[in-house]
Amino acid sequence: MKKAISITLSEDNLLWLRGQAARTSRGSVSEVLNRIVGETRKAGGTDPAAIRSVAGTIDLPDDDPDLERADAQIRSLFALSARQPTLVRERPAATRTKKARRG
Description:
mainly alpha; 3 helices; 39% helix
C-alpha cells in the first residue's frame, strides 16, 4: 500500500530525480524515490540515532488490548475469504510447431 506525502527537496536533487524518472518506463519521480528508499533500507542504510523498533506504531483495539481474541478474529476472516468463489482460468498447453525448412 502506498501513501501520498509532501516532501521538500533542494532544486538540484529534484532535477536529478526528474532525470532518473525520465529514464524509467513510467517516468514517475515517486517510483524512483520509493525504489531508492527501499534499496537503502534493505542495505541497512540508517542513521544510528533513528528509531529501529515498531513499538508504538500499531494501534491496538481498546476492547482487546492483549489481543486475546486475535486468533479467533483472523480465523474467522480467513474462513470468510475461503468461502468466496474464485475464478480460475487454465491456459491450454502451448503447442510447438516446427517451421518448414526452406531449401
